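Weekend entry, working from home. Most of the wet-lab plans are on hold until the incubator is repaired, so I used the time to fold the two sequences that have been sitting in the queue since the last round of cloning. Logging both here for the record. First:
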Amino acid sequence: MVKLNIFIDDRITVTPDIGSNRHRAVQAMLLAIHALCCPLDPNEPIPWDDCLLFGKLDEGEGLSECPTILGWVVNTRLLTIVLPGKKFNRWNQDLSMILKWNKVSLAAMESTVGRLNHATMAYPIMHYFLNRSQNISVHWAILNKSKKVERYLPSQVLQDLQLWKNNFLPRIHQGMSMNLISYHRPTVLCWFDACPSGMGGFDHLGNAWCFPNPSTYSCCTETLNNLSGVHGLYNYHMAGYLKRPFGPQRIFPQS
């Protein structure tokens, strides 16, 4: 007989505190797990153990307005997601040591990249400032570098890590709006595109814009595409579509 251990965790129950909802919510996840693992045949010949681990449940926080979910403190009143203090202090201290000596081992670099990648879950735009750190880790790994030997980091990678230490991690520790990581129904759908001779865009309302590139431009196509998106968002901001050009928006640009 083969015996399997199946772990079902990292599930949460969310409910508005209305009426008896909070009492029902306490049992909701237990009922769901029990129903999922319950044998389908009432005459099941194979012995079946209850899959609910009540000892583990006693260690949980229970219902809360500020639960810790997958390493994040979620404030359901302020609608913010916060990096816990212990993680912030430990990650910040490790970054300080790297910046102090300008060098790091491959193992420590991979750990740092993993942590910062986890931090981008609360602030997705920070992925742009993680590319060079990821690239140096992959490059060292491809070269079969020892994971314990420390090596000096390029100045651009150090500048990125300094930005993380001084700006990004403190901002996440203070709390990020959930609107930055939640889906919004778009109110404006627009398309942008560019080529060496010019760039332009249009939206579902029929508005359009275009202009030729100056002869002094010497950019690759990807850069021109990014510039067309920035210029398009600027046009919509000036036209009054976007009230907060650098905040969460209900606009989906496509190129």
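Second, folded right after the first finished:
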Amino acid sequence: MAVRASLSEDQAADLLLYLSAASRAGKYTGGGGAMCIALIGGMDRLERCYVMEAERVGISLKVFNGQGARLTSRMGNVDAMVIFTNKVSHRAKREAIGVAKSRNIPVYLRHSCGVCTLRRCLDCIKPKGVNG
């Protein structure tokens, strides 16, 4: 028996966010190996938009916008980093750049933290042949 439920827009967005987080944790695989980008900084209220924008172009996004410590150990393997410098502490920025240098990861520093800024960064980063 199939059960059909209607979701509000917020519930649907929360479900998408959950599935993307589960995908990043390896609990849900929706497809092949997507490129993984770390976003450091940004606004909490835009995290869902950041993730959806990255998924639109076929990129897996890890968002670090809290005050959490040990960024190095939580980051894992990423292909590139985007740092929104107006919404991140100097210490977190230095730590992220240090990790990027040690792992030879490209870093994109941007002052503003809007979705359009992320979109422009993703357009520079995304693999060739991916339309978004």
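Plan for Monday: verify the second prediction. The chain has a mean pLDDT of 75.
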